[in-house]
């Protein structure tokens, strides 16, 4: 009598496959990548938990007292608790302002990267798959944009929008404007990278098979080609997140970014810069250090991811 068949083993989960992958093994071997990842997660956690861990809400007028204005850090003789790294000219706790500012900078950076990725990936898929005059037009537009620095494009978009609106814009509208400006500044890298990958993938057997069974071009692009070109896209997105945060900080420092009622790290640096030569260095130094640390951690993580996904370096 034949023995009963054993039940088939359940396929491993995506998490199990990732933990068993070469990418995760490479990550565990790189102390710099681990440190960058931990630092990035820490910065994001501090930003998300800002309302819970901050000594005060620095933008709630009911919690501010002018008697606490311009207090130095706690290790100075004139320092006062709970203002660990001092206060600004309005009595706002600098540490709390950094947490809240980092929250807004990350929000604008992430939304800007998502928008630029959506535009660039979409145009790259269309250019690479369609070819011909469609490809030529998209790539020539991309070539023209590459001749302008990203910050200049963001300034132009921001300036034109504010001129059309007459200079009177709500805070949420200004955030959306900065996101659009960043999105329109960084889409070219995605488009060029995805286009090159699509031109290679569209001649492979699985794409030809999809055409033979009558799949439409959008289905082939989104369900079959797109998953095979996401590796380089993740690398670009990680690096562009740091660039987007710097771009937002630059615009805010120049006074064309976010309003002071919704300050980011760039706005805090602009505000603190006015008091730098009066001896109140902590108002600008700590937001600047937070911005530098956040961007450095993300850049190091992006550099590791780029090298880990490069088969020539394996």
TrEMBL record:
Pfam families: BPD_transp_1, OppC_N. One of its GO terms (cellular component) is plasma membrane. The keyword Transferase does not apply. GO terms for biological process: transmembrane transport. Its main location: membrane. The keyword Transferase does not apply. The chain crosses the membrane at residues 32-53, 106-134, 146-165, 171-188, 209-226, 232-254, 275-301. Keywords: Cell membrane, Membrane, Transmembrane, Transmembrane helix, Transport. It is a multi-pass membrane protein. It is found in: Cell membrane. SUPFAM superfamilies: MetI-like (SSF161098). Residues 102-302 form the ABC transmembrane type-1 domain. Belongs to the binding-protein-dependent transport system permease family. This is ABC transporter permease.
